[in-house]
Amino acid sequence: MTPPLGAWGLTGQPVPLPGGHRNAVLRVGQHVLKSTRRSEAAIGWLLPVARHAEVCGLKVPAPLRSSLNTFVVDGWICEPFCAGGPTPPKAIADKITHLHSTAADLPQRDGFASARDLLTAQSGGDIDLAEMPPDLVVQLRAAWSAISLETTHVHGDLNPNNILTDTDGTVTLIDWDEARRDHPLFDTATWSEAQTPIIKRAALAWEIACSWLLEPAHARMLASSFTSP
Fold it and tell me: Do the Cβ atoms of 15 and 26 come closer than 8 Å?
């Protein structure tokens, strides 16, 4: 896929960046171009999220509008490049908890569904339960039904490579592709003391479901342990 560099006034040779298991990620100067499956509304939803995150002490590379005044052009988005080294999620646990509190009133992201929604809904985000074995879906829903009704904004993919700390201590949170309104456990489960058996199983159920179509080998490997006696 060739990104539409001109839509953001960019020139030069795009350089692939590491990561991006589900999307292409390319650097062009001080910008990053990413392929996306998300709608215009789903990308625009990230702007208030970025503002909330900055109040909580987290820098966020917000999506940039193109010359067409859209965020998405031919399946690509653009955002500023951010430098920094990998950081463990536990190091920013207080900031994430603060974000959950300040962003609690944000609406659901366009095209997404929370784990509680998926107890009755069939799809949302990258998940399509209709494409999964019915007996596995029953077990996934059982895992999600064990958690409370609490929902707020979640990043959804907190791992060290998505948390960058630069030389002056600024923390940037990147890759908001899976962000949505959902139970906070989908963030807090990334630091070990938060992982009760119920939380751990609900988080694993989500990883299986959202990987089933896009990373099938990974999803089926996780499902083998999830369904074992």
Answer: yes
